[in-house]
Amino acid sequence: MKNEKNYAVKNAGAFENLTREVFNESLDLSAIELSINRMKAGESSPFVHAHKRNEEVYVFIKGKGAACIDGEEFPVNAGDVMRIDPEGKRAFRADASEDLLYICVQAEKASLVQHTGNDGFPAKEKPSWMQKQ
Ligand code: ZN
């Protein structure tokens, strides 16, 4: 674990170790919550849930399964990305044949002030690989 003035780095080891706690507690995130999740083949969310303030983005990275949002059921597959408003009542399940891997990012709805195009700016510092030989 490395925790410096303007950054934190942690090696969590195996993919399965990349839990919500690794991101949110080890990296001390202040604006988003991020988790990488593996739903085992045939498993389902234990309950339907919604949020008070947070919008969620799901990025399905491997496998297939199903989503149920506000009572509408539909398939989800690797490559699907999904935004769900806080009040959307959601649950997921993995198909019986394979695990479903997905990333979930959440942040307070409408809290993003500006995107990278307006917020990022070039700095003068250069890493060794950008300096002239
Ligand atoms: Zn949630």
Q: Calculate the terminal CA-CA distance, rounded to whole Å.
A: 32 Å
Overall strand count? 9
* Number of contiguous helices: 2
β-sheet strand percentage: 35-45%
> Over the alpha carbons, how many angstroms does the gyration radius reach?
18 Å
Mean pLDDT: 92
Q: What is the global morphology?
A: globular
Unreliable residue runs: none
Largest sheet: 4 strands, antiparallel
Quaternary structure type? single chain
Strand pairing plus helix content: what structural class?
mainly beta
| Series of secondary-structure elements, N-terminal to C-terminal | EEHEEEEEEEH
Helix content: under 10%
Bound small molecules, by name, code or SMILES, are: zinc ion
Strand order in the sheet with the most strands: 3-9-4-7
What key attributes describe this structure?
2 helices; three-stranded antiparallel beta sheet; 133 residues; four-stranded antiparallel beta sheet; single chain; mainly beta; binds zinc ion
Describe the overall structure.
There is one protein chain. The protein is mainly beta and 133 residues long. The chain contains two helices and nine strands, in the order ββαβββββββα. The protein has helices at residues 20-26, 116-119, and strands at residues 2-3, 8-9, 33-39, 54-62, 64-69, 72-77, 81-84, 90-94, 100-108. It has a four-stranded antiparallel beta sheet. Strands 6-5-8 form a three-stranded antiparallel beta sheet, with no helix packed on it. A two-stranded antiparallel sheet has the order 1-2. A hairpin with a 4-residue loop joins β1 and β2. The chain is globular, with a radius of gyration of 18 Å. Residues 49, 51, 56 line the site of zinc ion. The site of zinc ion (ZN) has 3 residues, from loops.
